[in-house]
Amino acid sequence: MIFNTYFAALVLLAVSTSANPGKVKKCTVKHNRNGADDSDNILRAFTKCQKNSIITFSRVDYNAHTPITLAGLENVVVHLEGNLNLPKDIATVQRAINTTTNQPSTYATPWFYIHGTDVSIIGSKDFKWGRFNGYGQQWWDIGNRILRPQLATFNVTNGLLKDLKIIKPVAWGWNLPGRNIWVENHFVDAAPNNGTRDNTVDCLMVWRSFSVMIYPNTKFPPPGFNLSGHNITVDGYYGHNGDDCISVINGAKDIVAKNGYCGFSSHGLSIGSLGRNGANHTVQNVLFKNWTMDGAVYGARFKSWTGGQGFADNITWEDITLINVSTGIFITQNYYDQDKGPRPPNVNKTSTKISNMRYRNFKGTLGTNWTDGTCISTPCWNYVPGLDEPKSVILDLYAGTAANISLSKIDIRTHAYSRNTSVLCDPTTLVVGEQDTLGFQCTNGPFVAMPIKQTDKPGHRHRH
């Protein structure tokens, strides 16, 4: 992997532009003091300073009330010393996102679409600034999922996102389909303000403690990152999400996500979803390392749809701390929309294949409930047969399509700190010889660790 080389180059770019002001253009984004839309001012600054430039947002609140495409950027450093505010009115956002020409992402259309080469966006060191304010609370309160925007797509080759704060995004956060991207010290507040349970935690990065409340009727507060590009590192993440903190999706390759805290009712550190509507999707070479998952539905999750195709290979989760999670380790190759009826038949008898999937050094506790407050169907969206209490491990496999899964140093305990946790795993779905290297007894019953035997199985490899 080559993240560090490109990150060093981006740092040198930022330093050189500061040290040699005569060799670069400089633009400061104008701010309308009357509260009008600043989108035209943003576009003018990025057009004037499209290449070899430094662009600065002053320490004020900018109204980005129109979706924006910032394309053709080359060797540009953006200093976000102020805040970027989306419209507060739901209907205004819906009308704008319905008519924008911004390029759609996998799940939605972004409010900001950024494209170029050698682009850095650096937020303020002051926690009050360097923010993207989405005003998502009002959407969540009424469960509105119509014409929701993604916050931003960063489709950049050689990119840096640093010290940015995402506050109450309407839906999905950042989509990263580019190459050679480094993300550092990223903050996400996607937890509702109203709830039934206080959860106060200390911020793991440089900012203050952050107090949130669990809200059981929320309709999926948004995820943090969708990663579909190549050579991407996320180093330093603190967030409260109602969906995935990190979601690695189709096309992703050579991904590292490390040193993070994920609170609220997160759906975990996820691969997928993959293979919807029989699609041929691929993900390769992913490492999740040194994370704390607090109050999450899942710690580590893999999700592919019934009848999918393609593969996910060489995925590692390691050094994961769990606090009151519903399921520590979860794999399903049989996902479907429960709110749209029963599981559809797998007519072609296919599945997104998984191989070389490793879980190392998991420790912590399960919660008291196997689900969260985002159920909008019966059974719940996350139900699998036999699920009746929090589980340390669930392997919901499609027979014969999952190879070289291994679990080692797993110390997941109950809410009362007992070792008597349980698992769901059908041994008839394992490939020949898989039990020898799985690391626990595949059964619907108690978790029993097993020694991992040396193997010469084809395709068995350790890359991370």
Key terms:
Pectate Lyase C-like, two-stranded antiparallel ribbon, elongated, disulfide bond, repeat
SSE blueprint:
Layout: H1 3-19, E1 25-29, H2 39-48, E2 51-57, E3 61-63, E4 68-80, E5 83-85, H3 90-99, E6 110-123, E7 131-133, H4 137-142, E8 150-162, E9 165-167, E10 174-176, E11 179-189, E12 197-201, E13 210-214, E14 225-227, E15 230-240, E16 244-248, E17 253-263, E18 268-274, E19 280-294, E20 298-305, E21 309-325, E22 327-335, E23 353-366, E24 391-396, E25 402-413, E26 422-425, H5 434-438, E27 445-446
Parallel strand pairs: 1-2, 2-4, 3-5, 4-6, 5-7, 6-8, 7-9, 8-10, 8-11, 9-11, 10-14, 11-15, 14-16, 15-17, 16-18, 17-19, 18-20, 19-21, 20-22, 21-23, 22-24, 23-25, 24-26
Antiparallel strand pairs: 12-13, 26-27
Task: Describe the overall structure.
- With 464 residues, this protein is mainly beta.
- It has two domains: 1-192, Single-stranded right-handed beta-helix, Pectin lyase-like (Pectate Lyase C-like), CATH 2.160.20.10; 267-464, Single-stranded right-handed beta-helix, Pectin lyase-like (Pectate Lyase C-like), CATH 2.160.20.10.
- It has five helices and 27 strands.
- It has helices spanning 3-19, 39-48, 90-99, 137-142, 434-438, and strands at residues 25-29, 51-57, 61-63, 68-80, 83-85, 110-123, 131-133, 150-162, 165-167, 174-176, 179-189, 197-201, 210-214, 225-227, 230-240, 244-248, 253-263, 268-274, 280-294, 298-305, 309-325, 327-335, 353-366, 391-396, 402-413, 422-425, 445-446.
- The protein has a 25-stranded mixed sheet that branches.
